[in-house]
Write a structure and sequence with these properties.
Layout: E1 14-18, E2 25-26, E3 32-33, E4 36-43, E5 53-57, E6 83-84, E7 89-90, E8 95-99, E9 114-115, E10 120-121, H1 131-144, E11 152-156, H2 158-169, E12 176-180, H3 188-203, H4 219-233, H5 236-242, H6 261-276, H7 279-291, E13 310-316, H8 324-336, E14 341-346, H9 354-357, H10 359-374
Parallel strand pairs: 5-8, 5-11, 6-7, 11-12, 12-13, 13-14
Antiparallel strand pairs: 1-4, 2-3, 4-8, 9-10
Helix pairs in contact: 1-2, 3-4, 3-7, 4-6
Length: 379
């Protein structure tokens, strides 16, 4: 049941197109992309000073629909528990923005978008993109919305990487930053998990070198990629509590049918993911995540030397995909650059998914931090 006091109700996705040729967006790869469309949603109202804007940055499988309901939907946006009246990102006080990244498949320009030069979906003709490219595109949207300086940028996982990139690329455009369950760079283990997912897609006979649009998509490969990813999002404790070794009631005759509840759950998650995500976007975005490395050619003492925004770093004890030591490394980099950084490690059993599930604890931390960052004693 929707609570009218805390729900944003029905919201609509908006679209902003820029980088029209010959003014394409330069990419880190040396190529250029344009025109570019960003799908985005906004919640709350921009104040007269344009000083209350919060940019929410989504993770790998997220999109611009962070809160509220689309017409006819049964489920709200992916961070609805955190965005709305009275919530952590209180829309009675803040103007909240969330956009789908370039390379995505939920309204923003990506591999499934029609290439204006060929009149066919880009597929593998889409250029490689990076986290920095995603942030550069977002900066165009923020300019379009008439915002000179964001009150904060916030996001978990890949969203946290975008937060860190904002701190590097546009230090004078933000007043504070909240990276959650993220890292300055991927470890070999994190890259390895992503590579298994990519190889599952590439091995699907329907992938067809990325040219599957209008034909049968590589659903099995993408589903396996999601299954592998989902294992890393949970913890041993959360999986034990949720499934244990319980056996499914409806046993099937095929001897390798999923017998355990956890097997059926992973297949369910994989099959559902295929309905809403594009396999090529998965390849491009995971490559962007793996390539992210703020310490490439830069010492940890200097990585945030241009940054003077206040920073809140949040990690979770049971997160083994982005373990707490990686968040501590972010704090160390901030301290060495004399950045005002606060570190909070939440005692959660949810694993990496905790950034989506530990609503009460995150709400407390974020409300207090934003009250300090904005000098708003009523936040």
């Amino acid at each position: 049941m929707v609570d009218p006091n805390t729900s944003l109700g029905v919201v609509e996705t908006k679209y902003y197109t820029f980088a029209e040729p010959p003014n394409e967006l330069p990419l880190e790869s040396g190529e250029a992309l344009g025109p570019i469309t960003l799908a985005y949603e906004t919640y709350g109202a921009l104040n007269d000073q344009h000083s209350n804007a919060v940019l929410v940055l989504h993770a790998l499988s997220g999109d611009s629909h962070a809160a509220g309901y689309h017409e006819g939907d049964r489920h709200p946006g992916w961070w609805d528990a955190m965005i709305g009246p009275g919530k952590a990102l209180n829309t009675e006080k803040y103007f909240v923005i969330c956009s789908n990244v370039i390379g995505g498949c939920k309204g923003s320009t990506g591999p499934s978008t029609v290439n204006p030069k060929t009149k066919r979906p880009y597929g593998l003709d889409f250029p490689l993109i990076t986290i920095k490219d995603m942030v550069n595109a977002q900066r165009h949207l923020i300019n379009h919305l008439g915002i000179e300086k964001l009150l904060t940028v916030i996001g978990g996982s890949m969203g946290g990487m975008q937060v860190l990139q904002w701190m590097i690329s546009y230090p004078n455009r933000i007043r504070s930053a909240i990276p959650i369950a993220t890292a300055l760079k991927h470890s070999p283990q994190q890259i390895a998990f992503d590579e298994v997912g990519r190889q599952a897609i590439l091995a699907d006979p329907n992938w067809n070198n990325g040219d599957y649009y209008g034909h049968t998509p590589p659903a099995k490969g993408l589903a396996v990629a999601r299954m592998v990813g989902h294992i890393t999002y949970m913890s041993d404790t959360s999986m034990t509590e949720k499934f244990g070794r319980r056996v499914k009631a409806d046993q099937q005759s095929f001897k390798f049918s999923p017998n355990f509840e956890v097997e059926g759950y992973l297949q369910y998650r994989g099959d559902n993911f295929v309905k809403r995500f594009d396999a090529n976007s998965y390849l491009y975005i995971t490559k962007a995540i793996d390539a992210f490395n703020l310490l490439d050619g830069t010492s940890i003492q200097d990585v945030f030397k241009q940054q003077r925004a206040k920073v809140l770093v949040i990690a979770f004890k049971s997160d083994w995909l982005y373990p707490a030591y990686q968040s501590q490394e972010i704090v160390k980099a901030c301290k060495l650059s004399h950045v005002d950084a606060t570190y909070c490690e939440v005692n959660s059993t949810y694993g990496h998914d905790a950034f989506l599930l530990e609503v009460e604890e995150e709400t407390h931390l974020i409300k207090h931090f934003l009250r300090t960052a904005s000098n708003d004693r009523e936040a």
